[in-house]
Structures are given as structure tokens and as C-alpha cells.
Amino acid sequence: MKKLEVKSGDRKFVFELRREGGRYYASFDGDGASEQPADLIRLDGNRYSLIVGGKSIEFGVEHNNGGYAITTGADSAQFVVEDFEIARMKKKAGIAEADGSKNVAAPMPGIITQINCQPGDEVEKGQTLMVMEAMKMENDIKSPVAGKIGKISVSQSDSVTKGQVLVEFE
Question: pTM to 2 decimals?
């Protein structure tokens, strides 16, 4: 089973696809209640035909700016598609997108014990930006993206609350 979180503009939904006995089943609410038989046929290149509940939709898919551009005839829409579990873990860890910029927030209350970056630094995805002590454990706060640090909102020894923005990217 593959569970995905799909975002387009201010809309967000969960799409689930599972395979059983050579057949696909799709659900658009994430709880399986609206599950319907589905067939996905690759037409050519990046063009597909999706048949769900007896209705066929032809569409094209292109990777575009961290998401996918989906085209159906003259219509086009931008979607960000992410594995549901990864999206859930990022939310829990306080990694959020706001207005197209990436912010890193505290995953839990704690104390900042070390800051490894400063505004203007170019950092790599996965690089440790700071260390936070919470529940008697040290937790590395890592960069969700490669990019340039815009602002650091905390100092060493600061107490932080869950969800408090720690770092903002340019």
C-alpha cells in the first residue's frame, strides 16, 4: 500500500493506492472508506490514463519545482506529492513550509545547547543546524533543504516551546 499526502494551493488530501491480486484500489480520503477499483495505464512518455470508478482521466505528469505539474487537456495544476509517513514525521519534527519558504521549528520543548550556523551560511540538506536538549537527550536539528540561512530566531541556552520557529531560510 502506498499512502501519499497531496497539496495544491491551500487544499490538501490523502491519496492511498494499494494492489491486491493484480488489481489497484484507490482511496482519496486516506481511511479507505471511499476505496474504488483503479487502473493506471502508461500511454507514452509522461502521459497516463487513470480509470477510477469507471471514469477515465488522461493526464501528463512533469516534475516541477519540488512537486508535479499535472496537465489534463488545456488545464494544468501544481501539486506537491509526498509520502504520507514522511510528511507526518516532518510535521512532528517541526519542519514546515510557510509561503514557499522553509522554516525549522522546535519538535518539542527544550533548551538550545549548540548553534552550528549563522545568517548567510549556505547549508546542505541534512546538515545539523543546532542541538537541542529535551527530556535529558540531545537532539540534532537538521536542515530540511539545501539553502541559505536567512534568520536564526534563538540563541544558545534559550528555552524553546514546541513549534517555535528556530531557523528561517531565505
Answer: 0.46
